[in-house]
Amino acid sequence: MWQCRYGGVEVPDQLWQHYTSGKGKKYSDNQAEDVVREEAFMRSFDGWVAEFEQFVRAKGKIEPGKWRAYGFKKPFNPIKELRTGIRSWKLRFGKPPKGSSPWYQQGFGLNKDATLHPKKKRRRKIKKVAHEKSSDHFCTQPRKG
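RESULT FIELD:
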C-alpha cells in the first residue's frame, strides 16, 4: 500500500491499516507459510480484503485514460536518443555528467565501472563471484571433478 500511495495509485484512508505478524520471531520464521497460522492476523487481513473489495465495487469500472501503460508506444525523439547515446559513451570512458550520481561515486572512488564493453565486464564479475562461492572453505565434502 505504501508503494501504491506514493507511486500515484489511489489508496483511500480507510484502507490504510497496520497489523503486526511474527513479532519476536526470526525473519525466516515469519514468511507467508508461517503468517497463515496466526489466526488474529489472518482475521484482520480477511477484514481488510473485504473492505478493499467493497471499495472497488463501489468505485466501479474505470475506463482507460489517454496515458494508460498497456500498449503505450513512446514516440521516437532522435535528439533525446542522441543525447542518451552520447551520455552512455561518456560513462564508458569514465566521464560522468558533473553533479550526477556516477560523478559523485567516482569522486569517492566508488565507481570503477568505466568499460567499453559493459556486458562483458558484468559477465566476468558474475563468474568471479560464482568461483569465490564454489571455493567455499567451509565445505566438508571434497568436490568432484
